Amino acid sequence: MSEPDPGATPQAMSDTTPTGAQVPPEQTYEAAAARVEEIIRRLDSGEASLNETLELVREGKALIEYCAGELDAVGGALEELRLDELVARLEGQSTP
To answer: Most C-beta atoms within 10 A of its C-beta, which of 35, 52, 62, 80?
Structure first.
């Protein structure tokens, strides 16, 4: 059996994405996107150890899934607003 990496930082996570990955509580889209950029820079540097790389990839995946979910939610809300506006216009046109 291998021992856990003592240098690995534990992540305080609460929410889960559809694949079971976790994201920090009270995360914002902007903070998540900024963290993904930091992760990419760290991975691109080539300085991360194998264990750190694995943790960064896991964290990045969870953050990307979170961001995708947020974008889907906003897109759905915008579509709903457009439909509401269309219905209002159509109802306004049908009354004499």
So the answer is: 62
- Give me the residue spans of the domains in the chain: 20-94
CA distance 70 to 85: 23
In whole angstroms, what separates CA 78 from the centre of its chain?
19
Residues present in the chain in total: 96
pLDDT tier for residue 62 given thresholds of 50, 70 and 90: very high
Average pLDDT, the chain: 81
| pTM for the structure as a whole | 0.64
- CB atoms closer than 10 angstroms to residue 27: 18
CA distance 8 to 54: 10
